[in-house]
Design a protein that fits this description.
5 helices; alpha+beta; binds coenzyme A; about 30% helix; 3-stranded antiparallel β-sheet; single chain; 7 strands
């Protein structure tokens, strides 16, 4: 099972293990960590800083370039407090010029040790449902042309390819579908 849970310092130990497992920011791309000052630090304080960032950016356009957004953690289970965390999902509420070209509404990453178990596909479906709850009728989801795992995740989730721009494949998913 897969659930999306809100960031919460109470889960810091699982969060820190997940950040360690990723081994660096390159493997977390797509998850909106550009809003953080620096990379996630796998400690309780690092988790607190991360959670504070997610709260700050949930409604604010901080500097005119970062739209309001919702951060989720992907949990292996029904979302209970003891579930292991297995990834990140970031839902942008609006598309600015860059998001429309390349970034899209939803980004995600799954920790290396939990890949190929369907978490990304289920998390994307939950993210699309969350977008519907915000009144977004179709979401843009993008991936690098050579990212087969992400491309298949999007296609399996009903993504319809519009085009390729600057090395990114751009898919739309109808949220009512
Ligand atoms: C992309 C990513 C999120 C996929 O996570 P995942 O939980 O392993 O994906 P799933 O298990 O839901 O699998 C989704 C599809 O991708 C396929 N897939 C997964 N890993 C794959 C790989 N390494 N190579 C080829 N296909 C792969 C699966 O087989 C499945 O397709 P299928 O059902 O048609 O067989 C994960 O690899 C990741 O975090 N990568 C690094 C960050 C990233 O690229 N994020 C996306 C940014 S756009």
């Amino acid at each position: 099972m897969t659930a999306l849970v809100p960031p919460d310092v109470a889960r810091w130990q699982s969060w820190a293990a997940m950040v360690d497992d990723f081994g660096g920011p390159g493997e977390m791309h797509g998850s909106g960590h550009w809003n953080l000052e620096g990379d996630p630090v796998p400690t309780e304080a690092g988790c607190a800083a991360y959670v504070a960032m997610t709260e700050l950016t949930s409604t604010a356009d901080l500097d005119g370039t970062r739209v309001p957004s919702t951060y989720f953690w992907i949990a292996d289970g029904a979302g209970g407090p003891d579930d292991d965390l297995v990834g990140f999902l970031h839902l942008r509420h609006l598309l600015n010029d860059w998001l429309l070209e390349e970034g899209g509404h939803i980004g995600y990453s799954v920790r290396p040790s939990a890949r190929r178990r369907g978490h990304a596909g289920r998390a994307l479906a939950l993210g699309v449902r969350a977008a519907a709850g915000l009144g977004i009728e179709r979401v843009l989801v993008t991936c690098d042309v050579d990212n087969e795992a992400s491309r298949r995740t999007i296609e399996n989730g009903g993504g319809v390819l519009e085009d390729e721009r600057r090395g990114k494949l751009r898919f739309w998913i109808a949220t009512a579908g």
